[in-house]
Amino acid sequence: MQSVLSSNKGSLMNIEDQLSLYKAFHFHHKNVEIHMVCIPLIAFTLVVLLSDFKVSEYPYLNLGTLLSLSYGAYYIALHKVVGSIASVGIAFFVVSSKWLYENFESSTVAKVAGTVHVLGWLAQFYGHAVYEKRRPALIDNLLQPVVLAPYFVVFECLFSMGYFKELEHKMGVTAKKMKDADLKAAREKST
């Protein structure tokens, strides 16, 4: 049975809906801190791992770049300013990936990136189990949290610097309602 949260996807093109849905799974500050560290590592290592799969002879045309372009385009469509900021980080991932493969053995790059990638995921699962005491968002819907997680980190950084306070407040209120409804539905299901 789907949870209230997984059935409430909101508008895919509405930043408040998307951030609220993701926030509904991330309230405990220690879990958010784990995500703030691990999500960029996971995103970077995913680009690194996919960058070894070339789709043409052009040096930057690989699966990592294609994924990065799609993320950047979606983020800009959701919010032009923040999407542009996120895209700079994404571009850094692409350029860094190319540099790694040019300066180290491919197998070494892949082993290190793969290890960091897996450890990042394990740390996030730990954060959800220990601090949130509930499942991560990706259990209900794999695609949405995987795409939104890096963007959520960018917004959390901007919120911590005092930007977009109204959006942060609306997101928090909506996310709390979503979380409460989800917990209520889970309790009712178990009785």
UniProtKB/TrEMBL annotation:
The lineage of its organism: Eukaryota, Fungi, Dikarya, Ascomycota, Saccharomycotina. It comes from [Candida] arabinofermentans NRRL YB-2248. It comes from the Eukaryota. The chain crosses the membrane at residues 32-51, 71-96, 108-126, 146-164. InterPro entries: Mpo1-like (IPR009305). Keywords: Membrane, Transmembrane, Transmembrane helix. The keyword Membrane applies. This is DUF962 domain-containing protein. One of its GO terms (cellular component) is endoplasmic reticulum. One of its GO terms (biological process) is sphingoid catabolic process.
